[in-house]
Design a protein that fits this description.
Order of helices and strands: HHHH
Radius of gyration: 21 Å
Length: 119
């Protein structure tokens, strides 16, 4: 069996970027729409029922930070595959790269909670 090196497919990469951009725009539109509706509902009432005293700004910030946290998890998930492949091929560079990616993602994930509490 020959060693096959996969070439980087620019067209597939561009299509993936376009799909991610469309998804990001859709999510941003939904977040803005939700914020507008929440602001419209909250405009006449000082404390809406069921919110628990949270303002529209705090709710929107929490929602945005959870979206950011999900993106961090999605970006860090392939590093687990990298670790397993590195272990299987006995390539320490891949294993270390995978653990480093998980460590950086964990720091970013924890930092998102710190930033959300500071805002």
């Amino acid at each position: 069996m020959k060693n096959v090196i996969k070439k980087f497919d620019v067209r597939k990469f561009r299509m993936a970027v376009i799909k991610m951009a469309i998804t990001a725009c859709t999510v941003a539109t939904m977040v803005c729409s939700a914020a507008m509706v929440a602001f419209a509902d909250n405009a006449e009432n000082a404390a809406p029922s069921g919110v628990g005293g949270a303002t529209t700004k705090t709710t929107l910030i929490n929602l945005l930070f959870w979206i950011i946290r999900i993106v961090i998890i999605v970006i860090a998930a392939p590093s687990v595959i990298k670790i397993v492949q590195g272990k299987q091929e006995e390539n320490n560079r891949d294993v270390i790269a995978g653990f480093t990616t998980i460590g950086i993602a964990a720091a970013c994930f924890a930092g998102s909670f710190v930033l959300a509490s500071l805002i």
